[in-house]
Amino acid sequence: MTENNDHGADHGAHTDFAVDMSYGDYLGLDRLLNSQVPLSDNHNELLFIIQHQTTELWMKLILHELTAARALIAADDLGPAFKMLARVARVMNQLIQAWDVLSTLTPAEYTAFRNSLGRSSGFQSYQYRTIEFLLGNKNAGMLAPHRHRSDLARALEAALTSPSLYDESIRALARAGFAVDAQALERDWSQPYQANDSVRDAWLAVYRDTDRHWSLYELAEKLVDLEDSFRQWRFRHVTTVERVIGAKPGTGGTAGVPYLRKMIEVRLFPELWDLRTWL
């Protein structure tokens, strides 16, 4: 067969995909674009589904980058990790802006199909919970919504019991010669990290002599950028939810906005924020 040379095709563009892989084939678009299945006949439900599906796709990339960055930090190969952390911060900026689209959903529009969600809720997102564990917000109770899926439960428990991105950054400080308390280097990784004076002092030393400790200084700033973006993502989540459902409880049984506001107060890398006061 010859290529289609009609006036709608660019000169030289390949147009015969009877054998060759096409754009749609490569991206699996048949599967992807048939994965939006509204459970009501309401026009606005498609927006809600696409918003959350695209968020899950972006979170897949975040996990890909954070997992690799953590391994590189553990190996003291900081340069490539910086690129990955910067990419994650940019992805989170995409997620922040995405709330602007969902905020076009009015309370009346959402109420019209909300019952179709049943007990499902973003609170149950396996990928979001894994991101939180990688960033250090550990809580064994968050495994419960995934007990019905042994594969997900095992993977999430592995994330819970492994060092977080910040744990590995603290270990990098110790390997660089800073005096870090033993309890900050080897502990029960399933527990939330507690701020440690020796870690604060180590980071302070880095910031007070950035020329000498440039790589660790850059690591610290990449972590701050990451947490800053993560906080903004959470904040936009809260304001969008409040705009759409007010003070109603969430579909998954959480308190809704009060629960989300509480999450904004979580600090992932406490010493990196505290040292700004001490400098």
Please tell me about this protein's structure.
By secondary structure, this protein is an all-alpha fold. It has two domains: 1-34, no CATH class; 44-278, Methane Monooxygenase Hydroxylase, Chain G, domain 1 (Up-down Bundle), CATH 1.20.58.480. 58% of the residues lie in helices and 0% in strands. The protein contains twelve helices and no strands. The protein is globular, with a radius of gyration of 23 Å. 23% of the residues are buried.
Quick overview of this protein structure:
This protein has twelve helices and no strands.
Proportion of residues in helical segments = 55-70%
CATH topology of the largest domain: Methane Monooxygenase Hydroxylase, Chain G, domain 1
Question: Radius of gyration in whole Å, from Cα?
Answer: 23 Å
Largest sheet: none
Low-confidence stretches: none
Offer a few descriptive terms.
279 residues; mainly alpha; Methane Monooxygenase Hydroxylase, Chain G, domain 1; 12 helices; 58% helix
Helices and strands in order:
Blueprint: H1 23-27, H2 29-33, H3 45-74, H4 78-102, H5 107-111, H6 126-135, H7 150-160, H8 165-175, H9 197-208, H10 214-245, H11 257-264, H12 270-278
Helix pairs in contact: 3-4, 3-6, 3-8, 4-10, 6-7, 8-10, 9-12, 10-11
